[in-house]
Design a protein that fits this description.
alpha/beta; GTP binding; GMP Synthetase, Chain A, domain 3; Rossmann fold; cell membrane; 9 helices; RNA-binding; 2 domains; globular; about 300 residues; six-stranded mixed beta sheet
Amino acid sequence: MTTRAGFVALIGEPNAGKSTLLNRMVGAKVSIVTHKVQTTRARIRGVALEGESQIVFVDTPGLFKPRRRLDRAMVAAAWGGAADADVVVLLIEAHRGLTEGVAAILERLPEIGRGRPVALAINKIDRVKAETLLALSAKLNEAYAFDETFMISAEKGYGVDDLRRFLAGSLPEGPWLYPEDQIADLPMRMIAAEMTREKLTLRLHQELPYQLTVETENWEERKDGTARIDQVVYVAREGHKGIVLGHKGETVKAVGQAARVEIEEFLGRRVHLFLQVKVRENWLEESERYSEMGLDFRDGDG
């Protein structure tokens, strides 16, 4: 029996639904899903099985116009992930159509797509009429000769199985890259930190867009089968600390409870989660923070 394995890069603008699609394909919540843009920093990989194929997804940060060092490193990681992949999927939102951002991605696709299959996935199809979808698909295929076009809803699951089958068949023949029961190659400490960061992002909305990061400082396995997890929320300014803590510590407490529930669901066992909030003024300029997020500090130069 022939096995196949390889890497699939999901590229697109921020908030196009890449993380939702990855989680749907893998069947578990591996990458952060939130309504705020640019939340996927690390190149998180999820592993999906389809027949005899093992599909390893590179969930790249959304492609946007970079302003700060972190932004530049994220965009460099996104294009790097696409250039290293066996198959590329451009994901766009049906109701937003051919935006400036999508046009900029299409310009770079000939260079990235050379020698590898590139599929177009139009997401959130339930938001527009059929004729609008067909016109959009025609316009995009005129701009770039995609190998296949898929109409999907990552959230509801429409069309996702067809896309997964296409990807499985497009991968190179070869042995599987990961053990069968492994769904992500990020260490659990980092996945837990990302889950907490998602809860903070959802809770704080516009108040603290990207000026915070979460690190798992300590992970202790206990004899009773539970785990104690200590995490630190780093903020860039003293004023941000109060926002994260909230009145009488209510915000951080609610965030901790929500994150604990999700980490427990993911692990399938009980955890004790403890959060601390600390100010680290220059964390956006510290190279080790970038390594932890799977980004290259040097890509932020210039």
